[in-house]
């Protein structure tokens, strides 16, 4: 470049579409507002991705934001770990409920007591959800809209058979190919 490139936060603040500074009195540390074109951009990216995956045969799903600890544990997440990246709801009022950090946990919870016929596999699910994470302190200040407490994400989830032993890897390769396709169509660089 023949100029000094700006990062997403500096660009967003200059365009008045992102606000991350001066929010401690509203929502504390590591949060943000998306305004005007910033909010529309988020909705457009979610819609674009959902439409792309629906055209590929994905089942759309919405999931609960609050889930029981056993569902997290089934996904390899320990909500009671110290420190934990999981927000736990006041146990005096709501026993064993936590805020989901990813829709993966909610989708896995759906399938943990839901029978799927072998001939219906693989199942491909797409979910857009709000994700809540405590984001542990890394010892340095994260920059921009990274390592924030709440964000929106579109996620692919698959349920496969294990008849040949390669089904899961094949579906993961398919998902990776779809991610590359989405980034390429958006004109974004990725690795």
Specify the CATH class.
Alpha Beta
Query: Overall mean pLDDT score?
Result: 90
Fill in the CATH topology.
BirA Bifunctional Protein, domain 2
Helix content: 25-40%
Let me know the largest β-sheet.
3 strands, mixed
Q: How many runs of DSSP E, i.e. beta strands?
A: 8
Low-confidence stretches: none
Global geometry: globular
Strand order of the largest sheet: 3-7-8
Order of SSEs, N→C?
A: HEEHEEHEEHEEH
Determine the strand fraction and express it as a percent band.
15-25%
CATH architecture: 2-Layer Sandwich
The number of helical segments is 5
Evaluate the radius of gyration: 19 Å
Distance separating the two termini: 21 Å
What is the CATH superfamily?
Answer: Bira Bifunctional Protein, Domain 2
The secondary structure category is: alpha+beta
Protein name: serine--tRNA ligase
Keywords: Aminoacyl-tRNA synthetase, ATP-binding, Ligase, Nucleotide-binding
Pfam families: tRNA-synt_2b
EC number: 6.1.1.11
What does this structure look like?
It is globular, with a radius of gyration of 19 Å. It has 191 residues and is α+β, with helices and mostly antiparallel strands. It has one domain: BirA Bifunctional Protein, domain 2 (2-Layer Sandwich). Helix content is 31%, strand content 18%. A hairpin with an 8-residue loop joins strand 5 (87-88) and strand 6. The two termini are 21 Å apart. The strands form three sheets. A three-stranded mixed sheet has the order 3-7-8. The protein has a three-stranded antiparallel sheet with strand order 4-6-5. Strands 1-2 form a two-stranded antiparallel ribbon.
């Amino acid at each position: 470049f023949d100029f000094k490139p700006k990062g997403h936060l500096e660009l967003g603040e200059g365009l008045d579409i992102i606000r991350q500074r001066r929010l401690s009195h509203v929502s504390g540390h590591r949060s943000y507002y998306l305004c005007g074109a910033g909010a529309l951009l988020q909705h457009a990216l979610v819609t674009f991705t959902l439409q792309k995956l629906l055209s590929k045969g994905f089942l759309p799903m919405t999931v609960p934001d609050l889930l029981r600890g056993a569902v997290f544990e089934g996904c390899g997440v320990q909500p009671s770990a110290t420190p934990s990246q999981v927000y736990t709801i006041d146990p005096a009022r709501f026993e064993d409920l936590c805020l989901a950090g990813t829709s993966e946990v909610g989708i896995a919870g759906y399938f943990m007591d839901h029978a799927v016929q072998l001939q219906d596999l693989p199942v491909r699910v797409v979910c857009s959800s709000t994700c809540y994470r405590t984001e542990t302190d890394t010892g340095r200040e994260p920059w921009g809209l990274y390592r924030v407490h709440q964000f929106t994400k579109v996620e692919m989830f698959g349920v496969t058979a294990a008849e040949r032993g390669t089904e899961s890897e094949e579906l993961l390769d398919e998902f990776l190919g779809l991610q590359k396709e989405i980034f390429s169509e958006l004109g974004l660089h990725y690795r």
